[in-house]
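To illustrate the input format used throughout this study, we show a single complete record. The first block contains the structure-token representation of the backbone; no residue identities are included at this stage. The design step must infer an amino acid for every position from geometry alone.
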């Protein structure tokens, strides 16, 4: 599990550009607050090797999925605290709940820096949840 901005990152499957090459179906973690993206550590070696081969071959598009064990990817999804394929409102609420829980821990530990990171995370996530709910209401 990846951590950023005081709490866990969200799991997703996405595409990353490495120089002129775009790699598709990469298991990733991303931060919903600062948008930092990391290749999941379980597939980082395969990702880097595929990028190296693609750059040598001059390939502009490659698919990591062809080189990964589907069971490994499924296990990774199950171990994510939140996964982007879920309902966006559910993911936002899970992230808010987790940040609230961690905020209590940071306060108990008197870790002011962590507490501030979590407060900022809560502000950003709360605004996104409100915006999502407003958009959903407008589309009804």
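Output of the design step:
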């Amino acid at each position: 599990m990846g951590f950023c901005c005081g709490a866990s990152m969200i799991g997703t499957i996405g595409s990353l550009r490495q120089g002129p090459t775009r790699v598709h179906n990469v298991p990733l973690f991303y931060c919903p607050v600062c948008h930092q993206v990391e290749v999941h550590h379980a597939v980082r070696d395969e990702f880097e090797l595929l990028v190296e081969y693609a750059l040598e071959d001059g390939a502009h598009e490659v698919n990591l999925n062809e080189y990964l064990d589907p069971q490994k990817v499924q296990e990774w999804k199950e171990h994510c605290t939140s996964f982007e394929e879920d309902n966006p409102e559910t993911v936002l609420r899970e992230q808010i709940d987790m940040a609230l829980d961690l905020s209590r821990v940071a306060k108990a530990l008197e870790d002011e820096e962590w507490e501030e990171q979590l407060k900022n995370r809560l502000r950003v996530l709360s605004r996104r949840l409100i915006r999502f709910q407003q958009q959903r209401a407008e589309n009804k």
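Structural context for interpreting the output: The radius of gyration is 18 Å. Residues 112-139 form the longest helix (28 residues).
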